[in-house]
Amino acid sequence: MIDPFGRKITYLRVSVTDRCDFRCTYCMSEQMTFLPKAEVLTLEEIDRVCSAFVSRGVRKLRITGGEPLVRRNIISLFRSLGRHLDSGALDEIVLTTNASQLEHLAQELFASGLRRINVSLDTLDAAKFLAITRRGKLDKVFAGLKAAKAVGLKVKINTVALKGVNEDEADDLVAWCGRQGFDLTFIETMPLGDIGGDRTEHYMPVTEIRRRLEQNWTLSDISDNTGGPSRYVRVVETGQRLGFITPLSRHFCDTCNRVRLICTGILYMCLGKDDSVDLRPALRTSESAGPLLAAIDGAIARKPKGHDFTIDPGNGRPAIARHMNVTGG
Ligand code: SAM
Ligand code: SF4
After folding, report:
1. Residue 3 lies inside a defined structural domain of this protein
2. From the CB of 24, is ligand 2 less than 6 Å away?
3. Minimum-distance ligand to the CA of 327?
4. Ligand 1 site residues, Cβ closer than 6 angstroms
5. pTM score, two decimals?
């Protein structure tokens, strides 16, 4: 699939639920209204959409949410999608998770073909973790990470840089990830969804995190380009990869290779734009793949050139009304 700007679309991110057992302050408000269950695609329907994308040339799937691992029977989706890995049609399936359920699911995830996971972890301090997630237990996350490591899953930690909250922990996180053998990426907050507060208050540029880390660590540039909005370096002292995501930079749109499906069947062609295509009618009116493939092709033909995120200091309002838990990371 080639979009109107000549970009090859090979990566589909799939949010399988908007629900979550945490309420991270930058992602959700305390009182969230979740999508009615009746509007949410079944796991079989999600499989059909993913498989249609695979047949159109998608090589990588990321399963995200909400918290994907709180969706009932989610393992069955990983298992069924695994057939595309076996056939060679897909290069990989990856997962973004808060790791709260990983302790008991790591083994089955690995068995289904999963090899890499991104785990969101903003602090190594249990009290701070509870404050950021509003209900998360850090020891459960550590147990999940231990299980992931034990079964052989490769782990990357995603840390949202929050001014005045965890900016003092960057060195500790780099050292800890080094000891654990985990890669690490710092992410800037994105203006997605009303979170019941002013998010510019905690906005922290990752360039500043990098500048501070450079005082204690040797960071050598590497040319890894995963097609995403990250810049990677190698921490010479630990050997681990370290990334910095600056989603506010429009620069990355030129090489964007991805689209996003949310759990209701709506496809967003850009994280930073509201334009979308509802795939559910095509999915539900016909058993055959034809209408679904036509709807997908029509959507790709509408992929925009770029986005227009801004965090306007003094105006903490979201640039995009959707919450991150709906679109996924
Ligand atoms: N629940 C899973 C998790 O936390 O990893 C998957 C979904 S979560 C929405 C995906 C990623 O988005 C997480 O790494 C989270 O930290 C990040 N995220 C959520 N809201 C964000 C925001 N407003 N700005 C930047 N990153 C955000
Ligand atoms: Fe849940 Fe992930 Fe959002 Fe935190 S960032 S509330 S874990 S979906």
Report:
1. no
2. yes
3. 1
4. 20, 26-27, 64-65, 67, 96-98, 120, 158, 160, 187, 189-190, 192, 324-325, 328-329
5. 0.93
Q: Are 190 and 326 in contact (CB under 8 A)?
A: no
Phi (first) and psi of residue 300, to 5 degrees:
-65, -35
For ligand 1, what atom is nearest to the CA of residue 160? 16
In a domain, 26, yes or no: yes
* pLDDT tens-digit map of 67-118: 999 999 999 999 999 999 999 999 999 999 999 999 999 999 999 999 999 9
Nearest to 324 by CA among 5, 41, 13: 13
For residue 189, the SS3 value is coil
One-character DSSP codes across 245-260: E-TT-GGGGGG--EEE
Atom of ligand 1 nearest to the CA of 189: 24
83 CB contacts (<8 Å, ≥6 apart)? none
Tell me how many domains the chain contains: 1
CATH of the domain at 35: 3.20.20.70
Distance CA 134, CA 131 (A): 5
Q: Which ligand has its closest atom nearest to the C-alpha of 162?
A: 1
List the domain range (segments joined by +) for residue 210.
11-327
Q: Model confidence over 206-228: pLDDT tens digits? A: 999 999 999 999 999 887 655 55
pLDDT in tens, 134-145: 999 999 999 999
The HSE-up count of residue 292 (CA atoms within 13 Å, CB side) is 22
C-alpha–C-alpha distance, residues 229 and 140, integer Å: 30
- How many angstroms does the Cα of residue 64 sit away from the middle of ligand 1? 9
Q: Determine, yes or no, domain membership for 294.
A: yes
Closest atom of ligand 1 to CA, residue 191: 23
